[in-house]
Write a structure and sequence with these properties.
heterodimer, A: about 575 residues, alpha/beta, ABC transporter transmembrane region fold, Rossmann fold, six-stranded mixed beta sheet, four-stranded antiparallel beta sheet, 24 helices, 10 strands, about 65% helix, B: about 575 residues, 19 helices, about 10% strand, transmembrane (chain B), ABC1_TM_dom (chain B)
Chain lengths: ~575, ~575
């Protein structure tokens, strides 16, 4: 894994291209100039006092120009290179993540994937800048110590001792600050918690007209927050006072030791000034630690991005479908859970074209897995699935997309507007039309009507153009939009509990619309409802990963085990809902 | 951005006294900056160069004393910072909370849940960056001022010459500031937008795969990636510009001094004075400007952008409407609610949810509202309780129009929404929320009547503190119904308020409310609620229809369908639980 990360890191450095080279050159040149400047300044001082060539002031000015120019260039090159590298890494990772086998993607929390795409890709994108700056940042600081040593070893010793003292004092601060910060965060959490509660009950508060009182209640812990907040500043004050004393003292010590050497004739006044400047530059050694931190972060980021890039993607074939209306065959299909336990075990099932097949069975019997392999939402671990005689894994992405569609129990709607949501599974032209300013295509409206969501959409402020975030939706409404999205499928429509949150009357309407489809495509419906099973041409009854029976509902119904699939589990306590009605009458 | 300046200046003005103390300590902090050059010059000229190192060390000792005083000043200044920053944060937090609650309770609004992040995240960014900005700016003013003053005391000519490029650099930087803020804002927006789109796409990974839409979605999110990169590059160009202004303001004075030095020495400036002048410029002015530019361009921009977002997203709600002085009828009117010709739609182009709708509820009314999901049941509840205003027609409660003060409306009706509000506090406080003067006996009676007794017992009585997170959704709903039951309002509106209760508990609640004096409207979640009610209102396809259960079975096909699908299935087919009516 670290090897993958380091390979990606090297690639990332090349992603910056010319900008990384510009950055490297500028940074190197800048570091050299920075290191030379104090010496040149010292000589310029001596020149003013008549002890050195009168060109030194000009030379020092020239070095200043170089520093300014390289600094400007390095800033520009660093930022631009990082932006480009990050963008390239993100494009690569994004395409990879979306192409992942859904099964692999589902194993990672979405937040983790987003973190890699947004956060860690940005860290890794700094590869070029971090490596270049990491190599060059040491130069001026380390060089200063050498310069001090060359000027007078006493200066170097003084400097070293001061630096150690500074580091110790800064360390002490880190431990101090965290205690006060903890109390502060807790008080803040209380206010945030109260606000979240009140927002959750916004409708009650609006109806009761108690907004003022609620504001006071939420803000009640504010004085406490202020107390802890003030404490964080006092802690900071102690640390800053210490730093404020030590850093100039270090400089003073250099002047004192250097001054002594001036008296003794070991140093000129110009060299003394150079020593003061080198001491300031050398104090930048502290920032080397920061650079190292950045390098560690960049490397960690690259490793996490690389780890995601090694996950296998799913591949598509190139085949298209022959003429047909959705004959579906499952041959010896086995699907295993992550722990190797079979979820589906050697399923053989032939669904004639144009049939409606209901998949029933107790929960955990493998219904959703069967639905998933039937339209290649996942590949079986063994066996094959054929649509009109062609194995699904040999179909091209376009062929598969046009042939099969999925309705889910909890669909995730993707797109800016309602129309874009419905168009997602269609051909790219339709998707582009929908995103444009033209009229919403007829097929989108037709699909919405078939899914019984048209009235809901038409009542929204901008109809089909309403933005998704401006359309509050219940679970049933989300399901129906998800269903409308799937209805373009030409040969195979798979509904995995896709109308479970829809009221029965509406479900009836949807079933009618789907059945009325002109092509008589094949429909596979995972359901818990007996009415749906009864209305299907064929029922596949699953039990513990195996087909317990395939046949017509009324034939299977004779089997008490089959009937038990639809029986309510014994719920202790609540009486049947009908009874209180009689009590009223 | 004007709002940011106005808000910040206003806040600083209100903190004039603490700011004054901060300035006093900052002056002490600047003491070493004021004396560094002078004392170094003396130490060299009168001490080290004159062959009297003892004298030199004595002058440096004086400087060391100044450094200690300066450090004390730094410490005190930081300690005083809290007096400026903490009240500033308090104001902002108050603003976020006030804005969020006002907006979330406005007509037709949805809870502004982003406000919590605004409070914990954005307000904290502003607090930290504001503190940093205050420190950096005052640090620059005092240090640079002290260094210039010191330089003036050494060589007035140089001080004058140095001040010009310094001012020019500052001017350049200030001129570029608005553009920098702009770039920073687009950068932050692009970053957030990328996070949102990527999150939506990856949350729906299964759905993207099922739709074969990997390419389309990758392109869509990819556009945000490119936008983010463009914003980042624009930011890099701004940063380059910044280092140019640093060149003018920070490096040019040094160059001027170097070039002028030989001439100054010929005019009689001592070696120590030349060194002192360089110390003022190189260790006083230049680092101060550097810190200012870095601080403002880093934290300062974040401050401006984040504060701007807070201010624009918490724009203070319009002042509370003056409650109109409607004559409150002296004698209680038997008509509890009257809707006349009410038309309501969610947008100008949207189909109306209710069209020219009439409804009258008298004392003792018990109405169930049924219909498929999306039929407008909750909209009717909101109109009836005055949370929404119709585009046409009138709604009156006890003869009073519903467009007034919500606190007045609360005396006429109580609405219990689906999402029950329970807050951290005692059970008693939660229950007396709508009637603070209710005595404990009355509360206990209500608790027993609605079936909350077991929960109250489990929690440890009425005085026990509630943790909303520890209650189930049903338990929260039960608390909310008892609270509403205690309310003085005669008309109760239950908007799917009992959907998380089991059918028996639901019946208990509804029957208790039916016995309560006044009227009751139940937006039904299960068909059983309709069977209990005296009258049923069907919303859905076509005109709304009102009638008794038996009438509607014969008159309304929609109703027959709703009831039939629930009751008509064979015994074996009955689903494990009553079907939800809505989504």
């Amino acid at each position: 894994m670290p090897a993958d990360g380091d390979r990606l890191l090297r690639q990332a450095i090349t992603y910056g291209g010319g900008w990384t080279i510009v950055l490297g050159t500028a940074a190197l040149l800048g570091a050299a100039a920075e290191l030379l400047l104090p010496a040149a300044l010292g000589l310029a001082v001596d020149a003013a006092l008549g002890d050195a060539s009168s060109w030194w002031p000009l030379a020092a000015c020239g070095i200043v120009v170089v520093i300014v120019a390289t600094d400007t260039l390095a800033t520009l090159a660093g930022g631009t290179g990082t932006a480009r590298t990050t963008a390239r890494l993100r494009h690569r990772l994004l395409r990879h993540l979306l192409a992942l086998d859904p099964r692999h993607a589902a194993r990672r929390p979405v937040g983790d994937l987003i973190g890699r795409l947004v956060g860690q890709a940005a860290d890794a994108g700094q590869a070029g800048a971090t490596v270049v700056l990491g190599l060059t940042a040491v130069l001026p600081s380390a060089g200063s110590v050498v310069a001090l040593l060359l000027l007078d070893w006493r200066l170097a010793v003084t400097f070293g001792a001061g630096l150690v003292l500074l580091a110790v004092l800064l360390r002490a601060f880190l431990t101090d600050a965290s205690a006060a910060a903890g109390d502060y965060l807790r008080a803040q959490g209380r206010i945030a918690g109260r606000l979240a509660e009140a927002l959750h009950g916004a409708r009650t508060i609006a109806a009761a007209g108690t907004v003022r009182a609620e504001i006071d209640r939420v803000l009640a812990p504010l004085p406490e927050l202020r107390t802890h907040g003030t404490r964080t500043w006092t802690t900071l004050a102690r640390a800053s006072a210490r730093t404020a004393a030590v850093a100039p003292m270090l400089q003073l010590a250099i002047v004192a030791v250097g001054g002594w050497s001036v008296t003794e004739g070991r140093l000129t006044p110009g060299q003394l000034f150079a020593a003061v400047q080198y001491a300031a530059l050398g104090a930048g050694l502290g920032t080397v630690v920061a650079t190292l931190n950045r390098l560690v972060r960049t490397r960690a980021g690259a490793q996490r991005v690389a780890a995601a890039l090694t996950e296998p993607v799913r591949t598509y074939g190139t085949a298209t479908l022959p003429a047909g209306t959705g004959r579906l065959e499952l041959c010896g299909v086995t699907v295993r859970a992550d722990d190797g336990r079979p979820v589906l075990d050697g399923i053989d099932l032939r669904v004639p074209a144009g049939t409606t097949i209901a998949i029933v069975g107790p929960s955990g019997s493998g219904k959703s897995s069967l639905a998933a392999v039937a339209g290649r939402l996942r590949d079986p671990d063994a066996g094959a699935v054929l649509l009109d005689g062609v194995p699904l894994c040999r179909l091209s992405r376009t062929a598969l997309r046009d042939a099969a569609g999925y309705g889910f129990e909890r669909p995730v709607l993707i797109g800016d507007t309602i129309a874009e949501v419905i168009a997602l599974g269609r051909d790219p032209e339709t998707v582009a039309t929908v995103a444009g300013p033209d009229r919403v295509p007829r097929e989108i409206v037709t699909a919405a009507r078939a899914a019984a969501i048209d009235e809901f959409v038409e009542r929204l402020p901008d109809g089909y153009r309403t933005r998704l975030d401006a359309a509050p939706m219940s679970g049933g409404e989300t399901q129906r939009l998800g269903l409308a999205r799937a209805l373009h499928a030409r040969r195979l429509l798979i509904l995995d509990d896709a109308t479970s949150s829809v009221d029965t009357a509406t479900e009836h309407r949807i079933a009618g619309a789907i059945a009325a489809h002109a092509d008589r495509r094949t429909r596979m419906i995972v359901t818990h409802r007996v009415a749906t099973a009864a209305a299907a041409d064929l029922v596949a009854w699953l039990d513990d990963g195996r087909l317990r029976g395939v046949g017509r509902h009324r034939d299977l119904w004779r089997d008490p085990d089959y009937r038990a699939v639809f029986q309510p589990p014994a719920v202790p306590g609540p009486a049947p809902a009908g009874q209180p009605v009689e009590a009223v009458r | 951005m004007k709002a940011v300046v106005r808000f910040t200046v206003g806040a600083l003005r209100r903190r004039a006294r603490p700011l004054g103390r901060l300035a006093g300590w900052s002056a002490a902090e600047a003491l070493p900056a004021l004396l560094a050059g002078q004392l170094t010059a003396r130490a060299l000229d009168e001490g080290f160069l004159a062959g009297r190192p003892g004298v030199g060390l004595a002058w440096l000792g004086g400087l060391a004393v100044a450094v200690v005083i300066g450090a004390i000043g730094t410490g005190r200044a930081y300690a005083r910072l809290g007096d400026v920053v903490e009240p500033f944060r308090d104001e902002l937090a108050g603003r976020v909370v006030t804005g969020a609650l006002h907006r979330s309770t406005a007509a037709g609004a949805r809870p502004d849940t982003a406000a919590v992040a605004r409070l914990t995240h954005q307000v904290e960014i502003v607090r930290d960056t504001f503190a940093g900005l205050v420190m950096v700016i005052r640090g620059f003013l005092f240090t640079a001022g002290a260094a210039l003053l010191g330089l003036f005391s050494l060589t007035p000519v140089v001080a004058g010459v140095v001040a010009v490029p310094l001012a020019a650099g500052l001017f350049l930087f200030a001129a570029a500031l608005p553009a920098m803020v702009d770039r920073q804002r687009s950068y932050v927006r692009a970053d957030e937008r990328l996070g949102e789109t990527a999150s939506a796409a990856l949350t729906g990974h299964r759905d993207v795969a099922a739709c074969g839409a990997q390419e389309i979605v990758a392109d869509r999110v990819g556009r945000q990636v490119d936008r983010q990169a463009a914003a980042e590059q624009a930011l890099a160009r701004m940063a380059a510009l910044r280092s140019l202004s640093l060149a003018v303001g920070g490096w040019l004075p040094l160059a001027v001094l170097l070039l002028a030095a030989p001439w100054l020495v010929r005019r009689g400036l001592t070696a120590g004075a030349v060194l002192g002048a360089l110390v003022y410029v190189a260790t006083g002015l230049q680092p101060a400007l550097h810190a200012l530019v870095q601080g403002v361009a880093g934290g300062g921009l974040r401050f401006a952008v984040t504060l701007d977002r807070i201010l624009s997203s918490t724009a203070i709600a319009p002042p509370v409407r003056a409650s109109p002085t409607h004559p409150v009828p002296a004698a209680p009117e038997p008509v509890r609610a009257r809707l006349r010709g009410v038309t309501f739609r969610y947008g100008p182009h949207a189909r109306p949810v209710l069209d020219d709708f009439d409804l009258t509820l008298t004392d003792g009314a018990y109405l169930a509202v049924v219909g498929p999901s999306g039929a407008g049941k909750s909209t009717l509840a909101a109109l009836l309780s005055g949370l929404l205003q119709p585009q046409a027609g009138t709604v009156r409660l006890n003869g009073v129009p519903v467009d007034g003060d919500p606190a007045v409306l609360a005396r006429h009706r109580v609405l219990i929404p689906q999402e029950a509000y329970v807050f951290t506090g005692t059970l008693l406080d939660n229950l007396r929320y709508l009637r603070p003067d209710a005595d404990e006996r009355r509360v206990t009676t209500a608790v027993d009547r609605l079936g909350l007794g077991a929960l109250a017992c489990r929690l440890g009585g009425l005085g026990a503190t509630l943790e909303p997170g520890a209650l189930s959704a049903g338990e929260r709903q039960l608390v909310a119904t008892v609270r509403a039951y205690l309310s003085p309002a005669p008309l109760a509106i239950l908007d799917e308020a009992t959907c998380h209760l089991d059918p028996t508990a639901e019946a208990t609640v509804e029957l208790a409310f039916a016995d309560r004096p006044g009227g009751l409207v139940v937006v039904a979640h299960r068909i059983s609620s309709a069977l209990r009610a005296r009258q049923v209102l069907i919303l859905g396809d076509g005109r709304p229809m009102l009638g008794r259960h038996e009438d509607l079975l014969t008159r309304s096909a929609t109703y027959r369908e709703l009831v039939g699908h629930w009751l008509g299935e064979p015994e074996t087919a009955r689903p494990p639980r009553p079907l939800p009516l809505g989504g």
